[in-house]
Amino acid sequence: MEEKKVRVRYAPSPTGYLHIGGARSALFNYLYAKKYNGDFVFRIEDTDIERNIPGAEESQLHDLIWLGIIPDESTEKPNPKYAPYRQMEKLDIYRKFAQELVEKGYAYECYCTKEELEEMKEEQLRNGVKSFKYDRRCLSLTEEEKEKYRKEGRVPSIRLKMPSNHTLKFHDLVRGDVSFNSDDIGDFVIMKSNGIPTYNFAVVIDDHLMEITHVLRGEEHLSNTPKQLQIYEYFGWEPPKFGHMTIIVNPNGKKLSKRDLNILQFMSQYRDLGYAPEAIFNFLFLLGYTDPNGQEIFTKEEAIKTFDPKRLSTSPAMFDQKKLLRVNSTYIKKMDQETYFKFIEPFLDKVDFLKSVSEDRKNEISLMFKNEINYGAQIIDLLNDIIIKKDELDDAEKEVLTKESASKVCALFKEKLEKLSETNEENVKNIFNEIKNETGLKGKDIYMPIRIKLTGVMHGIEMYNIIDILGKEETLKRL
Q1: Number of H helices, E strands in the chain
Q2: Hey, which residues does 214 pair with through a beta bridge?
Q3: What own/partner pairs with CB < 8 Å and gap ≥ 24 does 472-479 have?
Q4: Is pTM, for the whole model, over 0.85?
């Protein structure tokens, strides 16, 4: 039998922008598709109409493309065979399939109101039932009873009739064999009374019609899988292979929440701050994937080649901010000059001091920071720290300047700098060597007082670069 072409999908709701968790799901699906010469599909689950945000769909798609996770099919690049790619454009299709299940006796109309369902839940809670299950009161309604409800103005939803004591099992690509019992699930709504399908129904119809073969998604969807498998079973369709990835946690081991303000959560934020898309791609790949050789830096091609869902972690993936900065700075260091200048330009434009200098000089200054910055926007603060000297020193900085040797070093440095005709790297380094030989002082006892005098901070780029940026006159004035 001929192997089916691998087809995977990333199907966000347009209720927000591309989040770390969503980007990681998209990435692993993309890697799986590319590893096996398959298709990566981007489609939209837009049935939660009240929460949809204008522009969210485009933002999600374009942030994926920015990351290098480029869909083979999408709302902007549809394949007529599988279109449409938005659920709200397929309501007639869902109604048709739901009606088919009703006619086969696998689903039924439910006329219960919200109030009646709430009452049912409260009664079950009083009786010690923790997980609500519909009591099937509408399963055996007669036509007369249905007609009575219709005359009252009730519009029915459609519920799936779950078989009793039925085992629903599958082999999870990440977790291995998983099974559920249908008795733990209860009859759930597949079409709401407003004619809009629920997630678990729409996703099955979409995946079947789009010939999706593999679904890699977050573990929060694990409990949805048996519901979807039952729908596949009723239609007699072959389900895709499922894999459920673990949650992402913060350094305290807590599930990453959008309220966690210590971690940037959206791709647009990383984009605005000057993270390299290749670095974010690389970092997301390491979120829950372990390379057998301990490799950390991967090109897209290497990630595709090495990817194996069996190596996806079964433990929560920790979002390591330091690792992200390390990976991103590695990519910045590796940029050729032309790429770096283009990458850093938007941030240089935000530094007032650079608005009056030539393009060549701007590039020259930007190169001084290429091996120092972790992300593009950092250059703004680092440059401003030099240009706008800090007024107030903290205790540690004051302590450095109160040392007896500090004033001597600063006086010597000023004296020698005044005599220089050119403040290039070699000449500035020579001054430091002369001071070292004359005073017997070493390292930070020489550099630190001068750095603090010039910038008001204890750390930063090489001293000769600071002097180059400030110029001889301003350097002498500050000393």
Answers
A1: 20, 11
A2: 241
A3: 472/417, 472/420, 472/423, 475/417, 475/423, 476/414, 476/417, 476/418, 478/389, 478/453, 478/454, 479/410, 479/413, 479/414, 479/417, 479/450, 479/453, 479/454
A4: yes
Distance CA 365, CA 344 (A): 11
| Integer Cα distance of 201 and 188 in angstroms | 10
Question: Where in the sequence numbering do the catalytic residues fall?
Answer: 258
What residue ranges in 22-165 does DSSP mark as E strands?
A: 39-42, 107-110, 157-160
pLDDT in tens, 384-414: 999 988 778 888 888 888 888 988 998 999 9
Strand 176-181 relative to strand 167-172, pairing: antiparallel
pLDDT digits (tens, 9 = 90+) for 142-199: 999 999 999 999 999 999 999 999 999 999 999 999 999 999 999 999 999 999 999 9
Which range is most confident: 47-61, 250-264, 426-440? 47-61
Element (H, E) at 181: strand 176-181
d(CA 36, CA 8): 11
